[in-house]
């Protein structure tokens, strides 16, 4: 089961650039939440603050409260513990090129010292099935490298890798932006199925995508969250003029 | 609109391209109305005139390719040339000793009996010992520089490592004679006997000069090459790989192991090979501290001799044709050792990485 995320007064900086300004939002458990907005508005920084990837950049800094369930992720836990519970899928597929498909999927478990072959095998199959990749790769799990797959397959492999560690929250930073329409629709179907078990936060440039997969949508502009509401409300009757302008394509 | 412009410009018959556009079912404004007058108003474009006046560059391209091919082939020519000269000049010794030259331990200029085995042993033993010491250290330096080092320290440490590589080997030799040799004799040697004496590698008289001292100086000499190459390779690992590992909940060390070291392992082997190449051929510093005694001894305190050292030491005083020829055959042996070691290393890499691609996407 997923867990909700409560964000209060979140501020983030890259060097002297104030990338996120005072974000307050509640991301509900077991729902898909889409984040939309023009390039450079802070969507990616926001999701990277949720699993503390933001601070891996030496010039980056963040303040504020982010609570995952009851855990204040910046006070009560180390980034390593947080990232074990919050999976992430990146914009560009980044499978491990020196590992087989199998090793890619179970890499998170192996990292954490999991050695039970039977459980690893089961997890690999379950994750690849959940990521809708099983049928395409089941015959050469250990023969082929993760990098030998096509772009869309690589991205689904990365989703399988994130799912294998059974996270409570899954962050997806424009997971389909580098993919063709067929792969994109596969990944959207996937998100639709996964959200019953995980809390999903998806950054996207594609507003149809947000409308298709997410119950809630947040609109970012210049480092601020302009509006956060149910996807239906955002796309049919937004409160803010700027949201309406963006949705209708008048700018951005 | 832009599509119609392009087609009407490139084709002499405007009706034909327009029909293909229609076939694509793209709603386009009728071409003559919009493009016709607009095109006529424009002055002739100087850029287009310039570009169309340039040739295809076919001849220059072919000449360039030919020149590059010559450069590449010159490598083959040099290798074959060196090997031929070595074989021709060592004919005398090749005839006299045959293959036995590589397995015989004799080195007796007086009676004219020569064998290369002690030198091959000395070269291989010192080089591999040097690798054993230098590789972990170099990897540590590279990992620290790329992954852990505060930005402020990065430039000075990099500069110092590269400075180490620029010191001439005779200076290393001098330093070894005046610092390393007494240290080995008085403190390091006795310490090794006490702690690792049971292995049998530290027996017999310890005069400070010998295989171990030579290996240490070699290790110091190849350290900067291996570490700076490894650093460049690790820097080239895309950040997305590091993030992929971190996002799975990896600690910093796990991130370095899985995200960085694993992805750069082939490059690291290449860097180690270059270091080994230098160790195998290094002459001056080794000659100054290895003891120069043609003998195979298990103890690392014992004096030894390397292929390169014996050539440097005895070439100028080689009397007699067979003696000279034997020294040249030693050169041939060094050539062969280098080739064999490199081949084995490549086979190793191939065996380890079979099935997995070499590069990070």
TrEMBL record, chain A:
- Give the matching SMART domains: AAA
The reply on keyword Ribonucleoprotein is no
The ABC transporter domain sits at 5-247
Record GO cellular component, one term: membrane
Q: Which UniProt keywords apply?
A: ATP-binding, Nucleotide-binding, Phosphate transport, Transport
What processes does the entry annotate via GO biological process terms?
phosphate ion transmembrane transport
Query: Mind telling me what this protein is named?
Result: Phosphate transport system ATP-binding protein
Supply the source organism's classification. Bacteria, Pseudomonadati, Acidobacteriota, Terriglobia, Terriglobales
Automatic annotation (TrEMBL), chain B:
Q: Where are the transmembrane segments?
A: 63-88, 119-145, 157-184, 204-226, 266-290, 322-349
Tell me a Gene Ontology molecular-function term this record carries: phosphate transmembrane transporter activity
Q: What's a single GO BP term from this record?
A: phosphate ion transport
Top-level taxon of the source organism: Bacteria
Enumerate the subcellular locations listed in this protein's record, separating them with semicolons: Cell membrane
Q: Which UniProt keywords apply?
A: Cell membrane, Membrane, Phosphate transport, Transmembrane, Transmembrane helix, Transport
Give the way it sits in the membrane.
Multi-pass membrane protein
**Residue stretches making up the ABC transmembrane type-1 domain:** 120-345
Q: Name one GO cellular component term.
A: plasma membrane
Query: What residue spans carry the Polar residues bias annotation?
Result: 1-18
Q: Where is this region: Disordered?
A: 1-21
Q: Which family does it belong to?
A: Belongs to the binding-protein-dependent transport system permease family. CysTW subfamily.
Task of the protein: Part of the binding-protein-dependent transport system for phosphate; probably responsible for the translocation of the substrate across the membrane.
Protein name, entry field: Phosphate transport system permease protein
Q: In which organism is this protein found?
A: Granulicella aggregans
């Amino acid at each position: 089961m997923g867990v909700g995320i409560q964000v209060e007064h979140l501020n983030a900086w890259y060097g002297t650039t104030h990338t996120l300004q005072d974000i307050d939002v509640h991301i509900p458990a077991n729902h898909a939440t889409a984040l939309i907005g023009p390039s450079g508005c802070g969507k990616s920084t926001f999701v990277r603050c949720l699993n503390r990837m933001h601070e891996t950049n030496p010039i980056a800094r963040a303040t504020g409260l982010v609570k995952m369930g009851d855990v204040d992720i910046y006070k009560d836990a180390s980034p390593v513990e947080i990232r074990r519970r919050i999976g992430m899928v990146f914009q560009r597929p980044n499978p491990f090129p020196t590992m087989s498909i199998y090793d890619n999927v179970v890499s998170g478990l192996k990292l954490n010292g999991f050695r039970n072959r039977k459980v690893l095998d089961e997890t690999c199959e379950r994750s690849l099935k959940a990521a809708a990749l099983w049928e395409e790769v089941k015959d050469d799990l250990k023969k082929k490298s993760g990098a030998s797959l096509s772009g869309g397959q690589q991205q689904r492999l990365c989703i399988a890798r994130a799912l294998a560690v059974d996270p409570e929250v899954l962050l997806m930073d424009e997971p389909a932006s580098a993919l063709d329409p067929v792969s994109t629709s596969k990944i959207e179907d996937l998100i639709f199925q996964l959200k019953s078990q995980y809390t999903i936060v998806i950054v996207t440039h594609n507003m149809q995508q947000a409308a298709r997969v997410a119950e809630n949508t947040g609109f970012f502009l210049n480092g601020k969250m302009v509006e956060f509401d149910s996807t239906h409300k955002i796309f049919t009757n937004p409160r803010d003029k700027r949201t309406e302008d963006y949705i209708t394509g008048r700018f951005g | 609109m832009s599509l119609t412009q392009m087609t009407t410009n490139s084709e002499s018959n405007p009706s034909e391209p327009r029909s293909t556009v229609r076939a694509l079912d793209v709603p386009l404004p009728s071409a003559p109305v919009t493009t016709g007058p607009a095109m006529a108003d424009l002055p002739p474009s100087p850029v287009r005139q310039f570009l169309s006046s340039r040739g295809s560059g076919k001849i220059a391209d072919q000449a360039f390719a030919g020149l590059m091919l010559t450069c590449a082939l010159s490598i083959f020519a040099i290798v074959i040339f060196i090997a031929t000269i070595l074989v021709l000049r060592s004919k005398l010794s090749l005839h006299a000793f045959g293959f036995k030259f590589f397995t015989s331990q004799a080195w007796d200029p007086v009676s004219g009996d020569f064998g290369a085995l002690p030198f091959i042993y000395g070269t291989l033993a010192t080089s591999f010992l040097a690798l054993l010491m230098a590789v972990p250290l170099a990897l540590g330096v590279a990992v620290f520089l790329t992954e852990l080092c505060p930005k402020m320290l990065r430039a000075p440490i990099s500069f110092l490592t590269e400075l180490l590589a620029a010191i001439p080997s005779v200076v290393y030799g001098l330093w070894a004679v005046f610092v390393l040799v007494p240290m080995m004799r008085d403190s390091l040697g006795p310490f090794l006997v006490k702690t690792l004496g049971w292995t049998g590698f530290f027996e017999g008289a310890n005069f400070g000069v010998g295989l171990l001292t030579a290996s240490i100086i070699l290790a110091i000499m190849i350290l900067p090459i291996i570490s700076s190459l490894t650093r460049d390779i690790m820097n080239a690992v895309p950040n997305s790989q590091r993030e992929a590992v971190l996002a799975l909940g990896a600690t910093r060390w796990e991130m370095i192991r899985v995200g960085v070291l694993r992805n750069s392992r082939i490059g690291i082997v290449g860097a180690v090979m270059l270091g080994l190449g230098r160790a195998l051929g290094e002459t001056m510093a080794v000659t100054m501290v290895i003891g120069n005694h043609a003998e195979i001894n298990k103890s690392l305190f014992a004096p030894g001799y390397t292929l390169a050292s014996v050539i440097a030491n005895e070439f100028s005083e080689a009397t007699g044709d067979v003696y000279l020829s034997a020294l040249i055959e030693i050169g041939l042996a060094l050539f062969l050792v280098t080739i064999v070691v490199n081949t084995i290393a490549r086979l190793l890499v191939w065996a380890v990485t079979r099935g997995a691609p070499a590069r990070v996407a």
